[in-house]
């Protein structure tokens, strides 16, 4: 039996294991699930309090102590996932890693400790994954709207969705650690400080509160550690049975403010581990209730990691959210779909001939396919330097389903599709992606160049072979000679493509 080709996506089989890892700003979580009869059954959970956000300074640096806690935890997580195929594991980094001035300095040793790649997701993508986890854990009728509020260590995500689809997504730089440090950094808590802080935090929610309230929702659900902790406090104080009510929050707040310092906080049901950050978390929750007009919020055990698991299921089927995002971008920017299909077909034709030699895999093929679909996106902005405009839009937009590294990968392909290749175009990408991005960039360049004339006739011969980074492209002699523009472009392309580390040779027969 031969091994599957690099471009084969293997479907999930009964008994397969999947793992999702959440590198949160307060805690690191891992959940391992088994795929059985089309459903996910959780078989293991790991959680460690790391307080990564405590080590973040104003310049985007991270303390050695926080790094060490993270690496040691990830090494333990890595042992648990060692037997799970890499394509069944996703590790997601959130707010604190997003804010690092030099994320690769943290991510490279973190990936080494875990033994797996780590994706950094934008705030709105984090919000989508959180909503997906809650929606699967607590299904509701498709016509009912729900509000999901997730207060993490470094950020707060607020989502309105229906069924499994997030309709509105917002991410604020307000988390239990970040907010505690911001307003109570010296450990002192007073009623006046609390009032002043609540005014500032409420203003953050008011940026979108009117839009959210106009849309409305039928149910409100809170998730992650802060909301669970406050739900437990409300239950211990006999204010509710685990949910959070608007009239319960002032009572919890007043009890908290009886302590003059954070270390003296004494709330029923509050763990010692949660005490140092509960003030900031409660402050954010009170501001959210005020700004959004919330009266009651249930508490869910599901969060980002469960959303990541279900997102992996969708990626393995016909409902990959990234495909829907690419289609939406093409429609929004009015791309020429026929030309995109021609370029994509040729790029993938070349890919399939070279994937084995260049050790490219199914994910690389998907990235090349999506970049080809989006390569002319920038024409909606201006014809001049449209590849630059397109790359900028792709890198800096909120695109559902994509991590930051994936958007940077796509942007790099679109940016290098034509003309001069910038010297530092791949600097934002981790070293592990550089061979794939260089090789797929070369293939997209060639496909774009071959279809520059927008001809609809098929290409009679297009053979590619590689010996290391020596790439030989063979075309039909008559067909090639009949296209003087293509001939001139390809004759100058070996010098243009050289910055990718590719030595190009053109043959005809």
UniProtKB/TrEMBL annotation:
Membrane topology reported for the UniProt record: Peripheral membrane protein
Keyword list, A-Z: Cell membrane, Hydrolase, Membrane
Family the entry assigns: Belongs to the GppA/Ppx family.
InterPro entries referenced in this protein's UniProt entry, alphabetically: ATPase_NBD, Exopolyphosphatase, GppA/Ppx_hydrolase, Ppx_GppA_C, Ppx_GppA_N, PyroPPase_GppA_Ppx
Domain of life: Bacteria
Ranges for domain Ppx/GppA phosphatase C-terminal: 322-493
UniProt record, GO biological process: polyphosphate catabolic process
Subunit structure: Homodimer.
Family matches, as NCBIfam families: exo_poly_only (TIGR03706)
Keyword Cell membrane: yes
Catalytic activity, as annotated: [phosphate](n) + H2O = [phosphate](n-1) + phosphate + H(+)
Listed Pfam families: Ppx-GppA, Ppx-GppA_III
Co-factor(s): Mg(2+)
Protein name (database record): Exopolyphosphatase
GO CC entries: plasma membrane
Limits of the Ppx/GppA phosphatase N-terminal domain: 32-315
Species for this entry: Lysobacter concretionis Ko07 = DSM 16239
Lineage start: Bacteria, Pseudomonadati, Pseudomonadota, Gammaproteobacteria, Lysobacterales
EC numbers, comma separated: 3.6.1.11
Molecular function terms, GO-annotated: exopolyphosphatase activity
Entry's localization field: Cell membrane
